[in-house]
Structure formats: structure tokens, C-alpha cells
Amino acid sequence: MDFSIVYLGQRFFYRIFDFFHHWYVDGTYAIGRRFMATIEAADRSLALKVTIRHFFEPLYKDYTIIGRILGVVFRTFRVAIGAVVYLFLAAMFIVIYLAWLAIPVLIIYYAAKTY
User: Fold this and answer.
1) Distance, CA of 96 to CA of 12 (rounded, Å)
2) Phi, psi of 100 (to 5 degrees)
3) CB under 8 Å to 56, separation ≥6 — which residues?
4) 74 vs 60: CA distance, rounded Å
5) Which residues constitute the domain of residue 63?
6) Number of structural domains found in the chain
7) How far apart are CA 103 and CA 56, in angstroms?
8) Which of 34, 51, 70, 93 lies 20 to 30 Å from 41, alpha-carbon distance?
9) Helix axis angle, 65-114 relative to 27-46, nearest 10°?
């Protein structure tokens, strides 16, 4: 009888530790992987890295002065829009991550507050 109480107590604390490990560590990895996948998907359409790499090259290989000027102008707008999109995605994921971190703490807080 004494052994079963000790065993159940150990399993109880193990499961609590395992829940918090799963929630915070594994959840952090999952959200991080999702964030990187979202950034990579956005980069496929925005191509910010490629745009920055070819920033001063003429647009569509038009080596006239107009082509060189328009290439820089259009790429400036493209880089600005890409930066805004990336900042928005990062802010969105930070809010989601902070909400994810707060859920167990808020549940424990409100559960303790009601008793």
C-alpha cells in the first residue's frame, strides 16, 4: 500500500514536469519551425534576399540610364514592402508566442484565484 502512494506521487510530479517541458520546450521549437516556414514561404514570393543582392543592377537588363534609375527605384519599394511584411510576420509570431507562454500561467492563476 505504501509503495503505490509513493509511485502515484512520483508519477504525478513526473507528469506535471513532462507537461511543462512539452508545453514550453517542444512548443517553442514548433512555433520557431512554423515561423521559419512562414518566412521562407513569404520569401518565395517577395524574394527580399535576391532583390537586395541585385539592388544596383538594371531592371530587366535595360542598361540605359532610365533602366538603371528605375531598377533602383522599383527595388527600393520592393525591399520596403518586403521589410514591412517580414516585420508584420515577426510581430504576429511574437504575440502568438507570448500568448502561448502565458496560457498555463493564466490557467493556474485563475484556478488559484477562485479557491
Assistant:
1) 29
2) -60, -45
3) 71, 72
4) 11
5) 2-114
6) 1
7) 48
8) 70
9) 160
The one-letter amino acid code at 91 reads A
3-state secondary structure 17-78: HHHHHHHHHHHHHHHHHHHHHHHHHHHHHHCHHHHHHCCCCCHHHCCCHHHHHHHHHHHHHH
Give me 45's grid cell. 514570393
Question: Residue 110 is placed in which grid cell?
Answer: 485563475
